[in-house]
Amino acid sequence: MLKSNNQRASKLGEKGWFSEDRLAYISILFTLGMGAVTAYALTRVDYLSNDTDTLIWLVVIDALALLVLGTLVGRQIWRLWSERRQRLAGHQLHWRMAVLFGGVTTFPAVIVTLFALFIVDYSLRGWFAERISTAVNESVRVAESYFDEHARSISGEVLTMANDINREAYRLVGKGNLMGRYLSDQAALRNMADAIIFDGTGQVLAKSQFAFAITFANLESSWVEQARKGEVVILRADETNKLRAVVKLNSYVDAYLLVGRFIDSKVLLAMDQTRLAASDYQQLGFQQLDLQISFAVLFG
Questions:
Q1: Which overall architecture, per CATH, does domain 140-263 show?
Q2: Mean pLDDT of the 270-278 span
Q3: β partners of residue 196
Q4: What's the per-residue H, E or C state across the chain?
Q5: Domain ranges of the chain
């Protein structure tokens, strides 16, 4: 008899340990913990990058936790409804207390969530309004127009300089020192920082007085190929605030003129920052829906 009672007590203890109420408490704690982790992740996520796999997994886990918790709550509501139909003692008071408690706890959360989502949606619409988008795009166009203006200027100067060198080719060919002095005079006359003449193999044939910076530069074959087709190749060195131009000298056998001109570094920096800001703005516009979902999860 004593052994049988102990077995029944043990079974009751096991049943109590795995009871639905205990599982509901664990689900609530787990859901709250995952909500805190997700909120922390949302404050750390970079919306400009594509590395959002962790956030996606957190949202999936949150959804599963809410599904389990919702199932348990639904079972409790169904049990209360069944008790009401069976007219058990005290069911009406129990039902009213449950409805009142659920309404008091749910209604403010729903109102806050809807209000927060409205504010976020309204703010995002303001950020990506047509007027702001137009202003951002126009700022990039202004910055690029400054660069294009200098590119057209140096393009015209290098063509004029190449015509002068072609015209004087009969007396400059084979005379390196004379050609170097002529290049120095042309560079000073046209406000060029440096100028060199090189052949298709990259060998320097002549250079201006201050052309040391580009004499040993890495001359890419793609520049030569474009210039060989008669194009004026405009280059910008990433490490310096200098524009360069390459053009073919038609009066020489496979020879090319390379010139450089300095531009205000602050202007170039502002142009790069404007392009970067516009690119980030456009990428945020593409991820507008992701932002709304993230804020919905945060406030929900």
A1: 2-Layer Sandwich (3.30)
A2: 79
A3: 207, 258
A4: CHHHHHHHHHHHHHHHHCCHHHHHHHHHHHHHHHHHHHHHHHHHCCCCCCCCHHHHHHHHHHHHHHHHHHHHHHHHHHHHHHHHHHCCCCHHHHHHHHHHHHHHHHHHHHHHHHHHHHHHHHHHHHHCCHHHHHHHHHHHHHHHHHHHHHHHHHHHHHHHHHHHHHHCHHHHCCCHHHHHHHHHHHHHHCCCCEEEEEECCCCEEEECCCCHHHHCCCCCHHHHHHHHCCCCEEEECCCCCEEEEEEEECCCCCEEEEEEEECCHHHHHHHHHHHHHHHHHHHHHHCHHHHHHHHHHHHC
A5: 2-127+282-299, 140-263
- Residue 258 CB-density burial (10 A; 0-12 exposed, 13-18 middle, 19+ buried): buried
Query: What would the two tokens of residue 256 be?
Result: 């090319």
- What confidence tens digit (pLDDT) does each residue in 86-113 have? 665 556 666 677 667 666 666 666 676 6
The residue length of the chain stands at: 300
